[in-house]
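Kindly review these tokens for lecture notes.

. . .
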Amino acid sequence: MKTVFYTPNSEIQPIERSIRRLERDLLRMGALVEQSFRLSHQALFNGDLMAAEQIPRLDKKIDRFYRQIELDCTAIIIRQRPKEKDLRCLSAFMQLVRDLERIGDYAQDLAEIAIKLFPYPQHSSLPEIAVMSQHAQAMLANCLVALADLDETSGQRMKQLDDAVDNAYERLYQTFAHQENFPGVIEPILLLTLAIRCLERMADHATNIAQRVTYIVTGQRN
């Protein structure tokens, strides 16, 4: 993993050690969010309710990281008087950690949707929603790699995946909204509409993370 401000020819300053520690914590939190997303996918598309039951425990760990990282960023800002480049990094971390926490929350929402959908027959749109989920998971993986490597060039790949997720959302929403003569109760359609909304928002938060990495490296906001 690259570090944010690595200075090979000078002694590492306390604030640089603090920022390196924050990077490691962010990536640990990101790994938990990835795991939670994978489990929600298993629950929703494979009917794996045991996977769904694991997510609340992971979400508690994610929330602990979220609170601790925010506190650590605030403490560094108050006590260590960061320079402009360090302050830019810390402010990006404080926004980035919220994006990760929200993706974790949406993963838990998907698990709850999976549990409610379990008694119903599988809808014909489920394979397309599964592809949408895979794209959103790829976006999360890409933005975490970008964070680990401080790679500000990941935007084009992220845009392609985000466009695929957005297009799938619009297509599926129209399918659900205009379905006629639907037999039985409407709950499965409502739940699937909520599921695609969760996935669309997860992709947006992953895009935010990639943009915050670009800001850390370049100082430019997209």
The helical segments are 14-46, 49-79, 84-117, 126-149, 155-177, 187-218. The chain has a mean pLDDT of 91. The CA atoms of residues 28 and 65 lie 8 Å apart.
